Amino acid sequence: MSQKVILLIEDNSDDEELALLAFQRSNVANDVVVARDGVEALDYLFGTGPHAGRDVSILPQVVLLDLKLPKVDGLEVLRRVRADPRTRRLPVVVLTSSKEEEDMIGSYDLGANSYVRKPVEFERFVEAVKQLQLYWLVLNEPPPNR
Amino acid sequence: MRAFAQSIVESVRHPLVLLDAGLRVSAANSAFHAAFGVPDVEAPGRPRFALDAGWLDIPGLLERVERVATTGQPFEGFEVEHDLAGAGPKALRLNARRVVSDEDGTPMILVAVEDVTDKRRAEAALHRLNDELEARVRERTAQLEAANREMEAFCYSVSHDLRAPLRAIDGFAQELLRTYADRVDDRGRHYLTRVRAGSQRMAGLIDDLLQLSRLSRVEMTWGSVDLSALATAVVADLRHLHPDRQVTFVLQPGVTARGDAGLLRVALENLLGNAWKFTSKKTDATVTFGQQGGEAGFYVRDDGAGFDPAFAGKLFGAFQRLHHDRDFPGTGIGLATVQRVAHRHGGTVRAEGAVGQGATFYFTLPPGDDA
Hints:
- The structure holds 2 protein chains of 2 kinds.
- Chain A has helices at 13-25, 38-46, 74-83, 101-109, 122-139; strands spanning 6-9, 32-35, 62-65, 92-96, 114-117.
- Chain A is α/β, with parallel strands linked by helices.
- In chain A, helix 1 links the parallel strand 1 and strand 2.
- The longest helix of chain A has 18 residues, at 122-139.
- A 5-stranded antiparallel sheet of chain B has the order 2-1-5-4-3, sandwiched between helices. Chain B has a 5-stranded mixed sheet with strand order 7-9-10-12-11.
- In chain B, 45% of the residues lie in helices and 21% in strands.
């Protein structure tokens, strides 16, 4: 099985670097594609804009989605991903600072597969990333590609 | 007899007028003369006035009085605006009924006039006041809603934006400690550890502050709440978290109240959690939960560290602490939370205690059917 990428949608460069560090520490071998706002993420997923011509049938193994994003926010990204037949089964894990109920409810209502709150303590963040990679990259069978 | 009846009629302060079958004024009291500026009909040489002569030019009145004369059916509460002589526009309420003269049995019509100007004016003022009040309430509600929306947005950014830099501080400090361990000496490690502890403590403060604000925003669901059962569940959680502690809990069974179960659980978690924490220096502590007799006053008592009653007023303020963090860690938001819960129920909180003598925290809830 070829290694699929992880799509990290994150606008905060600190959080991006910490997430990449955490991936490294959890020995994640997959390539990580970083989208820094909702538009970039959708361009990547649907092969538009700078990603025109990308083979969009190759989906990421899992999408890690921050909610508060410039231009198009996380919930809107999720809505469009779920509305498109090409991506509607794509595993999406919401990875956010927010513990607001509306964000959790909104995410699940729109079909998020998981909701994980980023802990402040780095060890716990690394632990969370380890669990995520174990579950989504190893244990979970991704939806059939068709 | 006639004089007697007339003296009674005369003493009535409402204008009264007696009309004969031809609707001419037969008699009237002085209130009538004064109100309508009509010369005394009884005065010698004065002509009698017919109702339709123009001085009581009230549209619809003549027809109504005629109907009383022909059918004998009285009318009541006929309200009109009328310009009274010299008194300006007045709101008048008119009643009329057929009466029979004692002397000769001829039918007469008694018309009573009530000046309701003041009453109507007061009603109108009240109406206006109500409208103004409603408008003001609408305005204030809109302001409150706007403030609430602002608060929501604020809490959202607090929870999201203020935590992000903390993650960076903690994460990169940790990475320094890990990756550059060989180049950082003990002192450097000590400082980095302090940096990390500070960021984690601030994260805890932010979380507690958010919980406090959430308590104020959450919609309340009123119902009967079994406080004893809630306390039992909270104690079970505490025991599970700290199996090493020896604490005797004395819980009065069957204590119920009317309130929001979720909020009351938060209050009990904080009160019992505090009791648990502030008895941690004792080997055999006792914590009591119960209800005082009489009014709905509930209490949580412990025999732990207690507090200096001189500072009792500070206990319930957010971020107010009476103990050093190294003795009893905490953010100082717990009792502020308890107070917020009590206030949202319309209740109160108070504390009693002394240093080394333990503490008792009381809270009241409005009495209900179940309290």
